[in-house]
Design a protein that fits this description.
Structural class: alpha/beta
Number of domains: 2
CATH topology of the largest domain: FAD/NAD(P)-binding domain
CATH class of the largest domain: Alpha Beta
CATH superfamily of the largest domain: FAD/NAD(P)-binding domain
Radius of gyration: 20 Å
Bound molecules: flavin-adenine dinucleotide
Strand content: 25-35%
Order of helices and strands: EHEEHEEEEHEEEEHEEHEEHEEEHHH
CATH architecture of the largest domain: 3-Layer(bba) Sandwich
Distance between the termini: 46 Å
Largest sheet: 8 strands, mixed
Number of strands: 18
Number of helices: 9
Length: 341
């Protein structure tokens, strides 16, 4: 058993925790990063990164699986192709992204312990499977079922479900399918990677539990000639239940803070940005960042659209079709659907 003290303990080595720990360590602070899994990176995720997210990362080009300067959006009534001279979205393998960010964190001086689960939190101390660690600052970057969030007494009621199959094969087009009949206020996607594609569905409808969502995804895939059975389904919760991020010397970031989009399920941008900003705020409590103000504004907009779409099937169809029509006519910039746009 170990007992040690750190300026900051970060729980969770997803993009939020890695971004936060690296920011602090680069400023010379002793940081402990705890990750319950033995390997950093693997995560149920489609790995779609819009240009705004890439701008936060400076990723080596070799880590980009696929780049798309076109995206296809289908709804019940419409079909839109968004095109731009530069790539609009790229895909990455989450395990490779995690490993790259972990190497960057270690090079900055972060003490990383993997295979260590935070089991209990007190003011000033974290009890883990490998001993007790003391902190001046604590950062909860522990995802949608955050222990730190529960310690703070914050409920998590607004969550979506993301479910996907990583299917081997060559897929070239990035596509989004909005179908209230199948997915309520959510959508299905095809996000091609190098020799496979993430084919999945996101929905924030409480009456679409994972099993039903999976049935609907299979039904939809069959219609488009895709057989999902060779790859197993994997699902995870995505929290968009934002109730604050700064609680004295304790911070919540990424999904733990509920910063993912309720409308799209996108959360990597919010995780990276909030992680970096929590780190900067620990270093300088007066730190402010306009990107974070914009992120919270976009988060509220997405929740309002989701609430309107959630009233009934008719309002859902009307709102989704209006969004697609606005995209088609160029009245609505597609970046408004991205948290970092
Ligand atoms: C099917 C699916 C597809 C998605 N596709 C996309 C996409 O294309 N683009 C996008 O932007 N977002 C996508 N998302 C959302 C995205 O994956 C999350 O928003 C993002 O990973 C959040 O990052 P995070 O660092 O906050 O949390 P996480 O990535 O969840 O990391 C939390 C970490 O904390 C660790 N942890 C948890 N509890 C403890 C504990 N007690 N002790 C120690 N460690 C702990 C976990 O093991 C994990 O490594 C998708 C989600 C799903 C489910």
């Amino acid at each position: 058993m170990q007992t040690s003290s750190f300026h900051t303990i970060v729980i969770g080595a997803g993009p939020a925790g890695l971004a936060c720990a690296t920011t602090l360590a680069r400023a010379g602070q002793p940081v402990l990063l705890l990750e319950r899994h033995r390997r950093i990176g693997p995560k149920v995720c489609a790995g779609g990164l819009p240009a705004s997210t890439l701008a936060l990362l400076d990723l080596p080009p070799a880590l980009l699986e696929h780049r798309f300067s076109r995206q296809l959006i289908r709804s019940g009534w419409q079909r839109v192709e968004l095109a731009a001279p530069a790539p609009l979205v790229c895909t990455v393998d989450r395990e490779k992204l995690g490993q790259w960010m972990a190497a960057r964190a270690a090079a900055a001086g972060v003490t990383i312990l993997t295979g260590v689960t935070a089991q209990g939190i007190e003011r000033g101390a974290v009890r883990t499977s490998h001993g007790v660690f003391h902190y001046d600052y604590l950062v909860g970057a522990d995802g949608s079922s955050s222990l730190v969030r529960r310690f703070l007494g914050l409920p998590t009621t607004r969550v979506g479900i993301g479910l996907h199959h990583q299917l081997a094969g060559d897929f070239d087009a990035m596509a989004w399918h909005l179908s209230p009949r199948h997915f309520g206020n959510g959508y299905a996607w095809v996000f091609p990677h190098r020799a496979s594609a993430s084919i999945g569905v996101y929905s924030a409808c409480s009456d679409l539990p994972p099993r039903l969502l999976q049935e609907k995804l299979h039904h939809w895939a069959t219609k488009y000639g895709i057989d999902l059975t060779p790859a197993p389904p994997r699902a995870a919760r995505i929290s968009f239940d934002y109730r604050g991020w700064r609680f004295g010397t304790i911070f919540l970031v990424g999904d733990a803070a509920g910063l993912a989009s309720g409308l799209t399920g996108e959360g990597i941008y919010a995780a990276l940005l909030s992680g970096e900003i929590a780190g900067r705020t620990i270093l300088d409590p007066a730190y402010t960042d306009r990107r974070f103000v914009a992120l919270l504004r976009r988060h509220r907009l997405h929740e309002r659209i989701l609430t309107l779409a959630g009233r009934n099937r008719f309002s859902c169809s009307l709102i989704l079709e209006t969004l697609v029509a606005a995209l088609r006519c160029g009245m609505f910039d597609h970046t408004a659907l991205e948290l970092g746009g």
